[in-house]
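Contributing new complexes? Match this layout with zinc ion.
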Amino acid sequence: MKAKTCLYNTLSKKVEEFVPNEPGKVAMYTCGPTVYHFAHIGNLRSYIMEDVLEKYLRFTGYDVKRVMNITDVGHLSSDGDTGEDKMLAGAKREHKSVMDIARFYTEAFFQDCEKLRIKRPDVVEPATGCIGEFIDMIEVLLEKGYAYVAGDNVYFDTSKLKDYYVLSSQKEEELQVGVREDVEEDTNKRNKTDFVLWFTKSKFDNQELKWDSPWGVGYPGWHIECSSISIKHLGGYMDIHCGGVDNIFPHHTNEIAQSEAYLGHKWCNYWFHVNHLNTRSGKMSKSKGEFLTVSLLEEKGYDPMVYRMFCLQSHYRKPLEFSYEGLDNVAAAYEKLMKRVASVPEEGEAEDGKVEAYRIKFAEAMGNDLNTSMGLTVLYDVLKEDMPGAAKRKIITEMDSVLSLGLERAWEREETEVDEELSAYVEQKIAERAAAKKEKNFARADEIRDELKAKGILIKDTREGVVWSRE
Ligand code: AMP
Ligand code: ZN
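Output block (do not edit by hand):
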């Protein structure tokens, strides 16, 4: 089905109608995790909402190609160019090699995604697999005069761009705040906002992974990986780029600078940013307070689907505060929802005019800047609707291909419960029949066989004993 999709675009700062470059196709890129530790549920809020966006676009008929990088090098402990590499800090913490850390936490990330029913992107590319491509891109930037070498590092020259702040609309003065994080200023930089494309000299000279390059042995900056990996797999024109709001500046701002300088034209049309999940005491963190992971929620008895529903109840552009009370409320609502879904019988015609009407209603809700809580309301409306059970099941299944709340499990649960009940009944009848036979009461034994047959159950005497099946 084709539906009008409107999305807030960080680039224009407006809700706009989404129109892809190529009709029917969407080229989508997601900044992947930095695999130095487990993802916290804040990181996963971003991935859940991006997953809903991708699935919604597929629901409306788009052919989506989604690419994600895995940051396994270059992301320093500050988003500026200072601090130690996060991967190296992870390796030190656990007395392992950087590659072991990367492998372990990449797998852990995808396990969390699976639990939350987040689809794996079509292409997943670790940064360390693309060093040659990064070097090629940096060489072009140098040739075109957008980059310079200073103090044995390669920097991007932000003063060469007309509109460096196109995405973030930061002003020089405001930037002072952002820069404060970088306690020490890098005196090699020509402009405060210049950033490193390739390091050969850093204060932290203990980098485990280094590669040869035209500028000496070193390692790439963080931003170059997303520009390079996305262009490698999606070409020079991208439709949607996703990430959390903290990525707007400097990461995405720098990605635009590099990519457009390299390509010589506008690169990505829509920027989709998910606001943060916070705790009561502020920003979610991996080092301070309780480290909130999906596994921790499971240990505390929560189904990961409850956390997914917790995220879907709020709009992705609003900050969301996490609390166990809030999660408990959603857990109760989820249990009720599953019961209501389970009670929808598999009966009647699946083709009903109301199915298409609800399809449209759902698309309208979700197409309104991904209003997931409205999408959930439409799901509740379906449950209340007077329509054949089979038709209800059909539209619920379609909607859940986007919401991914594992609703089909309600029917599996119901079927197993019914099976268990039936099986206990049949086993009891078989035992009664065996007793009747033992007493040579063959008339009663035949009667039991007929009683079961009337219920659609066939029994057969075999050498191994009595077996039964449905007709
Ligand atoms: P990282 O692993 O630090 O590269 O972050 C992975 C993703 O999580 C990025 O898209 C971040 O913008 C996003 N992110 C980080 N913190 C939060 C948060 N508290 N809530 C939502 N998203 C977040
Ligand atoms: Zn990125």
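Reviewers usually confirm one structural detail per submission. For this one: The first strand starts at residue 6 and ends at 9.
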